[in-house]
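quick one before i forget lol
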Amino acid sequence: MVLPRLDTAGVAGTLGLGAHGLSPKGDVHWNLESEELIAHALRREEGRLTAHGVFIAETGERTGRSPNDRFIVDETPYTDAVWWGDVNRPIERSHYLELKKMVQNHLNSVNELLLKIWRVVQIRVYAYHLGWLLRMHGMLLLQEICSFE
């Protein structure tokens, strides 16, 4: 399947990186098209193409997110809206802020940062591993295409 071009490559978000505590030392690429993302991933040896031209990301031994790694800051008025249990576990705000700072420091230190903004679900994804960004791109692209038809 050939993915349609959205013609958003290079278009930066209206909210700058500084608003998220980011000031990367390396190159920043905004909203690259699928072909460009794949080219970056191949150059960085983060995956390969099959005989049919499909990109396969090399994600390593841990290929998915563990449901045991999902934490939500337990704050009023949202406490009663969350289904707490083994999957949705509370975390103190101070611990969340420590983790957030670690992520910001890491993203600021990488040589290349790729960003993708999807209009439909109003999320912004920061990635330094192309496989993660391509996975999100594939999952959310269909929603974006369908919403504009």
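fyi The radius of gyration is 17 Å.
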